[in-house]
Specification:
heterodimer; A: about 250 residues; alpha/beta; six-stranded mixed beta sheet; four-stranded antiparallel beta sheet; 11 helices; about 40% helix; about 25% strand; B: about 325 residues; mainly alpha; 14 helices
Chain lengths: ~250, ~325
């Protein structure tokens, strides 16, 4: 069964149509590439899935339930987690503090017990720290835990973003250009991590401009252009699609 | 671990002990006791303002919550004849019930100077409401409410009369300490981290499954409640309140205490309230110079220590480090 099903999703910004009648199915456990020229509406789709911007029309079904209209934190609670194109972190927190904040949802620490400092809360805080360190270890950034997020290099910031996303125990992970501004070695490292995340049972949607990455790692690809889906299929099928070539290179 | 915590808390315990000794030592000097009480009240207000600032929201309307608390408490004690000890928490509650819904839209949508303008409008609105001639029967118009009684004696402790400045300063001290302790606990808890998180990026905070609205409302409830309690304590100390006690000017001062002292820890507002309450009193001998000296002091601190007076220790530390190198 499809874990995420998008039906007739439409978004108007005033008179501008950013996404039009989009239909998309994401199968559990796959990695789906979402590509398209700049301004095709990819990030807008993410914004609508995660509840950051309202939909004009259409349905987003997560495991058969419509999630349109839910607040972003409710959607994150369900296990739909995203990263941002413009790397978004808590810049004035250290790496570890970022992780401790991100892990709050599953730590189940209540306001009163936190302020009163009950023994139960100390136990939860220990678990929170333990979980945070485990994820940092998985991504290989434990040595950076005391650095301020704002002082990290761009590549490490993006790793931290993935680390934050993993703290919410995602079922679907929406990645928005996780390899932008990285060199070949760093890209390989990130993509291997993403493959490992996939192997652990997380479904992944990937927005990416690097065609090498898309072709090598994605199970399926959906191509957007001017807010509509112009192609969908395996990397091979899509790379031979005439409409896709036209959208990227212009009509010959 | 626990002995470490104990040794860390010794300076605080000494400070608390000294503040308990102060009213006792100066009980003959009425003016010192008066100043002590006013400083304590200002600390309560400054701590509330600091919590608002931690959310990234500058406020010029904190006196509004004090106004609600003061009028609620005075009216409840004088008209409904309930005990001061019940009216005190009810004053805080009233500030929450009025303050939170009214400020909610601004709290959710506005930031920075825009929030500041709304709080400014809020406090002015309340002041005008209380001065309305048609409601003078309830709020007393410009003259406000007079002959507000001192707190009644506690059952079983009827020997202690709270009409004296000495006993009242202990009420205020204990409540100030409770407020400060609560704020201190917040600072050392996961909740403080969440407040900081919403200030840095509310979108990311939402996307990691934390309700920004919930964090802000809980924080603002504490802000309103502490403000209301402070107002109630003010009313039953002065025995007379009028709308002018709670306008923009007191609100500006409450903000100044925090900016002056620094908002990193609870000690910034405490030091700020302490110094900025005492300095104008010292300057009374030179009425013409008062505003000039007070203003210069603020400007110098703002220029030299933009993060508040308490950031001085970091500057001293880094100075010594550079000397050693």
């Amino acid at each position: 069964m499809a874990i995420l099903k998008i039906q007739n999703l439409t978004k108007y910004f005033g008179g501008l149509c950013a996404v039009k009648e989009l239909n998309l199915c994401v199968e559990e456990g796959e990695i789906l590439g979402l590509i398209g020229p700049n301004g095709a509406g990819k990030t807008t789709v993410y914004n609508m899935i995660t509840g950051i911007c309202r939909t004009t029309k259409g349905k987003i079904l997560f495991r058969g339930k419509d999630i349109v209209g839910l607040k972003p934190h409710k959607i994150a609670e369900k296990g739909i987690v995203r990263t941002f194109q413009l790397t978004t972190l808590f810049p004035n927190f250290t790496v570890l503090e970022n992780m401790l904040t991100a892990g709050h949802l599953h730590s189940k620490i209540g306001f009163l017990e936190a302020v009163l400092g009950t023994p139960g809360c100390h136990k939860k805080e220990e678990d929170l720290l333990h979980g945070a360190m485990e994820i940092l270890n998985f991504l290989g950034i434990v040595p950076l835990r005391e650095e301020f997020a704002r002082n990290l290099s761009h590549g490490f910031q993006q790793l931290l973003e993935i680390a934050i996303a993993l703290s919410i125990k995602p079922q679907i992970l929406l990645l928005d250009e996780p390899t932008s501004g990285m060199n070949a070695g760093e890209i390989k490292n990130v993509m291997n991590l993403i493959k490992e995340i996939l192997r652990r049972g997380v479904t992944i949607i990937l927005i990416e401009h690097n065609m090498r990455v898309i072709m090598d790692y994605c199970d399926r690809i959906a191509v957007l252009d001017y807010g509509t889906k112009i192609a969908e299929g395996t990397p091979e099928e899509v790379s031979k699609n005439k409409g896709v070539i036209e959208a990227y290179l212009g009509a010959g | 671990m626990s002995s470490n915590r104990l040794s860390k808390s010794i300076p605080y315990l000494i400070l608390i002990g000294l503040s308990f000794l102060f009213p006792f030592l100066f009980q003959e000097k009425k003016f010192c006791l008066h100043l002590f009480i006013i400083i304590m009240l200002n600390i309560i207000f400054a701590l509330g303002v600091r919590l608002t600032l931690l959310m990234g929201l500058p406020t010029l309307g904190h006196a509004a919550f004090a106004l609600i608390g003061a009028y609620t408490s005075a009216l409840l004690v004088m008209e409904v004849h309930i005990s001061f000890w019940l009216a005190l928490p009810l004053a805080g509650l009233a500030a929450v019930i009025i303050g939170v819904p009214v400020c909610y839209p601004a709290l959710m949508r506005l930031r920075g100077g825009y929030f500041l303008l709304v709080t400014l409008a809020f406090v002015e609105f309340l002041v005008l409401l209380c001065t309305l001639p048609s409601w003078a029967g309830v709020f007393g118009g410009f003259e406000g409410i007079m002959r507000i009684p001192a707190p009644n004696s506690l059952p079983g402790l009827s020997a202690i009369k709270f009409s004296s400045k000495l006993s009242y300063s202990y009420i205020v001290l204990i409540i100030t300490l409770l407020v400060a302790l609560f704020m201190y606990r917040i600072d050392n808890s996961q909740f403080r981290r969440l407040i900081d998180a919403t200030r840095q990026s509310d979108i990311l905070t939402e996307c990691i499954g934390i309700s920004v609205a919930r964090i802000k409302v809980i924080t603002f409830i504490i802000v309103c409640f502490s403000g209301g309690i402070g107002g109630s304590l003010f009313a039953h100390y002065q025995h007379h309140i009028c709308p002018a006690d709670f306008g923009i000017w007191p609100s500006i001062y409450m903000l100044l205490y925090v900016v002056f002292g620094g908002m990193g820890t609870i000690f910034g507002p405490i030091i700020g309230a302490l110094i900025l309450t005492i300095v104008p009193e010292i300057l009374r001998f030179a009425p013409m110079m008062e505003a000039i000296i007070f203003g210069s002091l603020l400007i110098v601190v703002a220029l030299v220590l933009p993060h508040g007076l308490l950031s001085l220790r970091y500057q001293i530390l880094s100075f010594f480090k550079s000397v050693i190198k």
